[in-house]
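Running this now, will post back.
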Amino acid sequence: MASIKDVAAAAGVSVATVSRVLNDHPSVSPAARATVLAAVETLGYRPNAVARSLRTDQTRTLGLVISDVLNPYFTELARSVEEEARALGYSVIIGNADERPELQDHHVRTLLDRRIDGLLVSPTDGGSPLMLDAAHAGTAMVFVDRWIPGMDVPVVRADGRTAIHDLVTHLHTLGHRRLAIIAGPAATTTGSERVAAFREALQEYGLPLPDAYIGQGDFQAASGRRVTEEFLDLPEPPEVVFAADNLMALGALDAIRARGLRVPDDIALAAFDDIAWFVHTDPPITAIAQPTPELGRAAVRALVDRIEGRPPQSVTLPARLVVRRSCGEARGEAPSEPPHPHQPPHSSPQRSNT
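Update: finished.
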């Protein structure tokens, strides 16, 4: 492997001149720059990234801490983050919090120790002293999907309120009146926000949401099974179960089938966070789709703006209802489908300075 000394010898210049060219220093003449770059290309020289980071105080590396790598939503989010970061000249190190605050903080601490240039986080709970300290210390940070209220950090997320209202309207039109929800953790912003939006939409139609119809889940499949079993054991079970994320919806489907019941003949099922699997279930599941790839790209752009000295912005993108057949829709009805995974949604993002 060629060294910087080999490049200097081939170009007939000093090692210092090669270093200045590689760091884009303006003091090097155009002729010398061209000669050095030609030698770099010929020899296949690659600068030592660690050594360069010590000189420039930048590693061109971003950290991403996601809530659950097994959740297809976060897997797709991570992919779009990595693609956008690579396009902008950054690498990404990913940590999986597995919905555990202590594991989240472990990854954050490790990433900060590795001198990343910026941090993307989908918080597992409503507060983290470590992240608060990091933000106060000047760490470039952006929250994606979830956020910590009160922290002065840009947030890139989807607004699901309108889509949840559209879902309740759709269910009401189909004749459903007893609607239940499997909620995510109340300590997360997405968990509390989706329950509030569901309750508000029901109130508009004069529909109650009794405590027995609010099941506490944790955004993982086992909790979806447990809560759905509790719903089915009620003297008057709900007509519809709305799971506040995709994994809990799959758990709910398992519980329904384990009782020998059918969707939607015996009970209807809908979900937040559409995934590719939902079109392959029988019946296909009606769901709320988030613009996941665009969320990942927007989060990276906001973080790079912060790193490179430009004012970062919070971004809110709309979620949308995808109607299929799990709530009693007619078989002949053409389902609505979300945009292609690599196409942005038709609606324009809402931006606010942070």
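The CA atoms of residues 223 and 301 lie 35 Å apart. More later if anyone needs it.
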